[in-house]
Amino acid sequence: MIKSEQDILDLIGNDSWMMNILKTAQTLHLPDWWICAGFVRTKVWDALHGHSDRTNLSDIDVVYFDASNTNEQFEKHLESKLKDKAPDEPWSVKNQARMHIINGEEPYTSTIDAVSRFPETATSIALKLNEKNELILVAPWGIEDLTSLQIKPTPPFKEKEALSSIYEKRVQEKQWDKKWPKVKVQGIN
């Protein structure tokens, strides 16, 4: 049973593949870096469904915050560096200092601020290794929706009409409830 942040940390800490992914991302030495979203959510939901095989990830989201260099090409360069180290992984690197533009919002102040503005509460989660190689987890909207298999919009996506259509589209496209039948999806209203 997964009920606490420590349960999630233990689950991931005991997964050598996930720990290797984290160690690989850490080698970039990016400011305010984290691995987020499906990387964490998928592991938790696989465990809660008793899946012995890992559900494939469409990408591994490495996020960071650097307002001094928001050049998208630099992100591609970072992805290339990760590909050199782990060529079989679907790396995606995004500087959250520029991602507010996609959502039509004010600039974000940090990576965690950006993660708090992800569409779904269960996806608004991130982890990394600190300087002591300890696993750290952050969940701006808590872990309850993640551990109770609920898909709900984060407050920014629930409150802004322009963002609600993005949430609804993601729910339809991702079809999480097909991969994980116990998942319950909540609409905007």
Output mean pLDDT: 94
State the strand order across the main sheet: 3-2-1-4-5
What share of the residues lie within helices?
40-55%
Briefly, what CATH class?
Alpha Beta
For the termini, the CA-CA separation is 30 Å
* Morphology: globular
CATH evolutionary superfamily? Beta Polymerase, domain 2
Low-confidence stretches: none
CATH architectural type: 2-Layer Sandwich
Please count the beta strands (DSSP E, at least 2 residues each): 7
The tally of helices reads 10
Features of the shown structure:
189 residues, alpha/beta, Beta Polymerase, domain 2, five-stranded mixed sheet, two-stranded parallel ribbon, 43% helix
Describe this protein's structure.
The protein is of the alpha/beta class. It has one domain (5-151): Beta Polymerase, domain 2. It has ten helices and seven strands. The chain has helices spanning 5-13, 16-26, 38-48, 72-85, 100-103, 111-115, 144-147, 155-159, 161-174, 176-179, and strands at 34-36, 60-64, 91-95, 126-129, 135-138, 150-151, 184-185. The strands form two sheets. Strands 3-2-1-4-5 form a five-stranded mixed sheet. It has a two-stranded parallel ribbon with strand order 6-7. The model has no long low-confidence stretch (mean pLDDT 94).
